[in-house]
Amino acid sequence: MSTVQFTINEPLVWNYPDGKREISHLLWNSSEDSGDCYFDRKTGVLVDMYRVHSFINPDTNEVIRKADIVKMTSSNVWVLPEFPSFMFPLLLVIGVTLGTSVYKAKVGKKHS
Q1: Phi, psi at 10, each rounded to 5°
Q2: What is the 3-state secondary structure (H, E, C) of 31-80?
Q3: Residue in 88, 80, 49 with CA at minimum distance from that of residue 67
């Protein structure tokens, strides 16, 4: 197993439908493997990758190159909700509790 030296370039700014994001660009190159990766700086999520790996047949010395391509096409991580997601269940519990209290109070008055 070989060790590969990575280079991280200055952050890039990419435009997305939801706004601009800072991206880290990582490069590497060895005799068996080379690649280009882009990561979202805030989340650390891989957003784009192009990697080429060489396989060498030990009997024939034939070199076969395989390319891996990864491209994130959508994400909900960057979308800010209109209100926090925990609010809906909380509001539902409060509404049911208040509704039950009002119902019990009205039923209790009818039986008095």
Answers
A1: -55, 150
A2: CCEEEEEEEECCCCCEEEEEEEEEEECCCCCCEEEEEEEEECCCCCCCCC
A3: 49
pLDDT > 60? residue 101: yes
Q: Taking a C-beta distance cutoff of 8 angstroms, is the pair 46, 54 a contact? A: no
Strand 12-16 to strand 19-29: parallel, antiparallel, or no bridges (unpaired)?
Answer: antiparallel
For 16, the 3-state DSSP assignment is: strand
Q: What pLDDT digit, counting tens, does each position of 34-60 carry?
A: 888 898 888 888 899 999 988 888 899
Average pLDDT over residues 62-71: 90
Indicate yes or no: pTM above 0.70.
no
Calpha distance 75→97 (Å, rounded): 36
Closest to 4 measured CA to CA, from 43, 72, 52? 52
